[in-house]
Amino acid sequence: SPHRFCLHPGLSEDLVDTHPPGGHSLVAVSVGYFLEDSVDLLCNQKLHQSWEVLFHHSVVIVCFGISVLLHQYVGFALVSLLMEINSIFLHVRQILLMSNLAHTTCYRLTSIVNVGTYVVFRIATLAWMSRWLFLNRENVPPATHTVGTVSMAIMTPMNIILFYRLLRSDFFK
């Protein structure tokens, strides 16, 4: 989070080898969460309903797994976790839809906050991460750079498509 850069200034200069206390553990726990959620989706949803989320989770598990195993790029993984702030509002929105509350003020407010946090925490974070990867291409080993670049090339269109679907569903019916 932004305050982490203030509390741990080295993070803003070195996302490869520097991370705040507990950062490595947070990324490791996140791998566990994405693994558990993947198993849950495989057991409780049809594949055609959940393939996009499973694909997303696979990319995150690979990237975070590399970070956890190498004890490197933990700072970069922590930056990517900013996207999960938006997940709160995505999930609240989904719960309201499943509860047939789509025509309520609560849903409308959640929808607006969801779109706002989507732009700030997903789109802007992905853009920043892509920029960081591009600017640091000389300092990142080719294999790691390739994994990062391919991941950004997968995540960015997925998030843009989801954003379009959200806008179409909630604002342009």
From TrEMBL:
Localized where? Membrane
UniProt domain TLC: residue ranges: 1-173
Q: Where, by residue number, does the polypeptide cross the bilayer?
A: 59-85, 106-129, 149-167
As for membrane topology, the entry says: Multi-pass membrane protein
Kindly list the biological process annotations in GO that this record carries. membrane assembly; phospholipid homeostasis; plasma membrane organization; regulation of membrane lipid distribution
Record's GO cellular component terms? plasma membrane
Q: Name one Pfam family in it.
A: TRAM_LAG1_CLN8
Keywords assigned by UniProt? Membrane, Transmembrane, Transmembrane helix
Q: Which InterPro entries match?
A: TLC-dom, TLCD
Major subcellular site = membrane
* Claim: Membrane is one of the keywords in the record: yes
Query: What PANTHER family does this protein's entry cite?
Result: CT120 PROTEIN (PTHR13439), TLC DOMAIN-CONTAINING PROTEIN 2 (PTHR13439:SF2)
Designated name of the protein = TLCD2 protein
Query: What lineage does UniProt assign to this protein's organism?
Result: Eukaryota, Metazoa, Chordata, Craniata, Vertebrata
Per the record, the gene is Tlcd2
